[in-house]
Amino acid sequence: MRYVYGLTSALLLGGATLSLATGFPAGAQVAQNDDAAIERIVPRLGAPSSFADLTEQLQPAVVNISTRQRIEVNTNPFAGTPFADLFGQRGNGQQNRPQFREGQSLGSGFIISADGYVVTNNHVIAPDNRATLEEITVTMPDGTEYEAELVGADAASDLAVLKIKSSRTFPFVTFGDSSEARVGDWVIAIGNPFGLGGTVTSGIVSSVLRNTGGGAYDRYIQTDASINRGNSGGPLFDMKGNVIGINNAIISPNGGSVGIGFAIPSEIAAPIVQQLRSGTEIERGFLGVSIVPVSEDLADSLGLPRNRGEFVQTVQADGAAERAGIKPGDVVTAINGKPVTNDQTLSFLVANIKPGTRIPIDLIRDGKEVRVMATVGKRPSEEELRRQQAFDPDAEQPDTPADSSTVIEEKLGLQLLTLTPQISRQLGAAENTVGLVIGGVDPNADAARKGLQRGDIVLTANYRQVATIAEFEAVVADAEKSGREAVLLQIQRRGGPPGYVAVRFR
Questions:
Q1: Where is this region: Disordered (predicted)?
Q2: What is the CATH number of domain 1-31+52-71+111-280?
Q3: Global pTM exceeds 0.85
Q4: Exactly one of 108, 157, 158, 266 is catalytic; which is it?
């Protein structure tokens, strides 16, 4: 279950071993020979005397999801310190091999087709950087277990689709239209909190389209139905038995439910689930700007009404926004005719526009209203965005990055990252620079003794251009095969010309 506190969030999954948390037909259905759905019992509108009949129809389609993961364990107690090399070796002077342990996670999901397609949250099945997903198990309400495979996952919306490996026919539920949900409507949540399968809770819709962080998909249905660790990925039903939300996060100062839970609205989830199920690439719009809300102080300084638009802090070079003429200091008030508000952010509006679409963007610049035309770009992956936003050449050396190479770290003591145009600009290099950027250097490696440091760009290795980690690893492998004990690197440092440095293997 994801926990949201203020404007921050953290993933928390249930279980004891890994802590992370339209008018469709209604009700749980079973495909018959004549494709007819089973008859459903729907309580009258208003306050129901009981949720039992509806629960009985829906519960067979709600499943528990567990994963088995292989997690790398660093057994060197001095990892990350200057003593790492000294105490991280076996008696023969060689580095200790990585060791692994088994991890598990628990969550919820629901079946959306008779042939066993299952929807859940991405964070239920996605391992962290040091873990590898090895097995997914789907457990039915009657205790029957099935192995499942991952069909597709989308980190941006936190959605994933699984397929149960079985030829049997399964009960299933369908998406409803969350745009019809109103504050005060009754809802029920079914899931696997704290590993207690088949748990049903009820409540009402507390708010619709609640924005918790300003991201492209931080728009939720808020409910006071009890949601806890392990409810992640489970369905939020309306009184017609339709899935109008996917339980995803809670606000909690103590780790338990305090009556503020969030579900991804079906109007957002259903199209993404369909794309994941069909294997279609999910493309989102992107302008290439960093923005902040128009606060009271900012509004006063600009002479604008509060809560109108979003303020542009920076503009990505050669991005869609810069090509359209958008500048830092502009206030974006509307995207393609839709006003930018707290509940309808710029990120959300742009992300849901197909890349390549030409749209009008309304701005306030120097107190005057301006309209520009922009051709929407394609949003980078979440990992690419994270690297672009997080890399600070002057920051302290971080933990091992997700795309770093253990081979290069072991042989040369270097953490290398893919060099993006954004990082190139941060390092003062040309955007078309080809190479790899050093994210960290082991202080006991020869690379550190030769003066290599975080933020240096590796242009070539043994005179071969290296644009990817794999290309660098190939150079290292060839050098070792030839009996060499060092590799010659061409290094570009901020503010200086390229130079060559020979770095010995460890």
A1: 377-404
A2: 2.40.10.120
A3: no
A4: 158
